[in-house]
Amino acid sequence: MNKKRTTLKDLAKELGLAASTISRALDDHPGISQETKEKVLNKAEELGFTRNSIASSFRKNKTLTIGVIVPRIDIHFHSLVISGIEEYAYKAGYNVTIFQSRDSIKRESKITKILQNKMSEGVIICLGTETNSYEHFEKLNRMKIPLVFYDRVPTGFEANKIIINDYESAFKATEHLIEVGCKRIAHIGGSQSTGIFKARFEGYKAALVKHDFPMEKNLVHFTKDLSYEEGALVAKKLLALKSRPDGIFCSNDYTAVSAIQVFQKNMVKIPQEIAIVGFSNYPISKIIEPHLTTVNDRAFEMGMAAARLLIRQIEEEEDIIQTEIVTIKTELLIRESSTK
């Protein structure tokens, strides 16, 4: 015979407390003393009490679920962001549902239609590279569903955003190459229709201007996806130049790693002949030899900040926060690929 499930009423009877007091103690409510909370938690553990989260959600008219839309789960940056979101959400009592847009605006729009059915209390989004209009997010706004965008964020659209200073980070990375003695610095960039990669290119240019370096068009190459293969293709083009660059700033680590490998296969020494800097601090940056100098974009902290801001909106009964922008501070991790 199955053992009967312990209920809130059972806990209340055992402790001589009201069921509402038990519930608030389990929720860590500030109005309940620490002594009472400990008594309730100890008795709950003793009797094997577990919360019926589904029933609790219905009573509160809340799903306690956050929707997260990412371009690609297999990108290390987004995996770390998701980990940060889940870490904060779990501690706050929320579940997380992940959706993958694959950088498709069509797919992204379909996902928002699913989320419109009140499946989620709020949504955290990183825009896909195809996204150039925001009608699908405007519908969520009209429905008063809290939104937080991270990394790739919309322009001209009122929303909460978690970002890094891509311009400043790129400027520092390029200036580092100048400080170690590079005279001709190339750039492997991402699509200029995407704000973060445009900002990184602008930071690169600003560093050249500050130090009176000319920007040579044949040293600047933009890619579609900043893939390993695209990085290798650009590296081969730079290798074929009569006057090769002696430094390269890459908009991500994949292209930087592929460039290192192309040059090494062609007997070009890193960093003695060409110093290389990447962006994002992927695990491969510490595996490649020489280890890659890169920008740590603190993806995990970005996820934590996004979840914190979203849950604050969900739980505050007042108007939804519409325009808060949080900037996560980055750092340049100097390693062997640039230390001439």
Automatic annotation (TrEMBL):
Keyword Protein transport: no
Parts of the chain that traverse the membrane: none
Pfam families: LacI, Peripla_BP_3
Residue intervals of the HTH lacI-type domain: 6-60
Entry keyword set: DNA-binding, Transcription, Transcription regulation
Name the record gives this protein: LacI family transcriptional regulator
Organism: Belliella calami
Lineage, uppermost ranks: Bacteria, Pseudomonadati, Bacteroidota, Cytophagia, Cytophagales
